[in-house]
Amino acid sequence: MKIRKNTILNKLNESALKKIIPFHMPGHKRNIQCSMFLRKLGAKYDITEIPGYDNMHNPDGIILNVMQKAEKLWNSKRSFLLINGSTCGIQAAINTLADPKDKIIVARNCHKSVYNMIELQDLKPVFINPVINNELGIYGSIEPETLDKVLTNNPDAKLVIVTSPTYEGVISDIKSLCQVSHNHNVPIVVDEAHGAHLKLNRYFDNSAITAKADIVIQSLHKTLPSLTQTAIAHVCSNNINCENFQRNLSVFQTSSPSYILLSSIEGCIDLLLEKKDIIYTKWIKILDYLDSRLARLKNVKTFYHGLSKNIVYNGVFAYDRAKLVINTDGLNINGKKLFETLAKDYGIICEMYSGNYVLAMLSMCDKKSSVRKLCNALEQIDMIFEGADTNGNKVNSLLYFDIPKQCLDIRTARKKEHICIPLNESVSRICAEYIWAYPPGIPLLIPGEQITSDIINMLLKMMSCGIELKSDYNNEGYISVLRDCC
pLDDT tens across 186-206, in order? Predict the structure, then answer.
């Protein structure tokens, strides 16, 4: 492979060839004879910040060059490299725009990183629910009218944060959400972790960068050819103090960044700057082929693909076709069984499953042969498992109940004494822990919320269907509640 000049990888290769004697970190000293397993992991390129290799937290050389290339690719005002995932970018954005105890507007389906910052900063969240589409069995979009009403009723709010696209690919009308938020003089942060590919081709579009959200965070590793943990944060308006944001990124990112990860970001950006039109053209042809094959299915439903490609669903502004939700309502199996069947019988590992669907993620790196195998598998499953499930092994409208009453703020509830009791005995008690459906890491209950019978019934139903629930204390069938009722 020919290595480009003036890149991080070129500098790493030069360092490896010079046979410099390292009396600095990391501890393996690039001695692959000492630790043979490191040879295959690229140890010869594994350095951190040494003279001549720039500083991610104060870049003025090769890392700054990558940032500028990112700004050109995504047409942002400023772009910052993240090697602690989108999580650190989200947390830095919140820390930049909100002070401790501030009120913020939060989409209920935000990632756990948002909730962790709410707890750390003792923020006062006002939650807004996305539209619930029972036909799809997934969260819909955040409606601009809902946000406008919430901001009108909360004029002291300091920040809005929403997720678009969602884990399942639902996109909100971010342009209108930005207009609403800015009309109230409130900055808006968009978790676009699953949408790094959107801005780069008109086939997708609907990126928060185009909509001029104030800060947009993207996970490169989720949908683009880059290593796990790599992400990027874009400043897209003049409302952000970039120096303050960069300082906060230094708080939430490691002080010893991996240059292998930084090089991965640069390689991804260089590839797209040079060949994105060719790559996207090939990818779109594969997606069109996928749709033509999915259109043959009689019982398996795939939203916004196949026969439903052009259907307009209630509560969904737009959809990312890099996500494939495979619904099982026309089959006699649930999401877990479909997930397991694809893995065991066909060697196909999907992203996740829920009560009545499986989520498959598509990217520009998919081979047509791989997509063909997925389609072949679904065509066989379409026949083998034909017929509705009559055993009650599915849960529709997953995760969907009214937002519980918040009796205590998260930080206060976390510090109070708690006890662990059976879930079915917890009606009206105050929750002392997070209950997540993971992936994607969206909370069903948060500390300080009152537990209702509807919530208990839904959680029990989810567990009976094989949905994996995560909690802070991981006591299956039990839940931690405050010892003293409030």
Answer: 999 999 999 999 999 999 989
294 and 316, same domain (yes or no): yes
Establish if 396 belongs to a structural domain: no
pTM flag (> 0.90)? yes
Burial class, 297, CB count within 10 angstroms (exposed 0-12 / middle 13-18 / buried 19+):
buried
134 plus 195 within the same structural domain: yes
- Strand-pair partners of 481: 419, 431
pLDDT digits over 62-115, tens only? Answer: 999 999 999 999 999 999 999 999 999 999 999 999 999 999 999 999 999 999
Provide the phi-psi class of 182: left if phi over 0, else alpha when psi is between -120 and 50, else beta: alpha
- pLDDT computed for residue 397 by the predictor: 44
Q: Of 220, 210, 214, which Cα lies nearest the Cα of 92?
A: 214
Query: 347 Cβ partners below 8 Å, 6+ apart?
Result: none
Q: Is residue 414 located within the same domain as residue 279?
A: no
Contacts of residue 226, defined as CB under 8 A and 6 or more positions apart, other chains included, come to 220, 264, 265, 267, 268
Distance CA(322)–CA(230), nearest Å, equals 19
Let me know whether 103 and 222 are in one domain.
Answer: yes
- Give the model's pLDDT for residue 473: 80
| Tens-place pLDDT, residues 339-375 | 999 999 999 999 999 888 999 999 999 999 999 999 9
Domain count within the chain: 4
pLDDT, tens digit, 9 for 90 and up, residues 135-169? 777 889 999 999 999 999 999 999 999 999 999 99
Domain housing 36: 1-47
**365-404 b/e (C-beta count within 10 Å ≥ 16 → b):** ebeeeebeebbebbbebbeebeeebeeebbbbbbbbbeeb
Residues 68 and 1 in one domain: no
- Residue 392: inside a domain, yes or no? no
Q: What is the CATH number of the domain that holds 294?
A: 3.90.1150.150
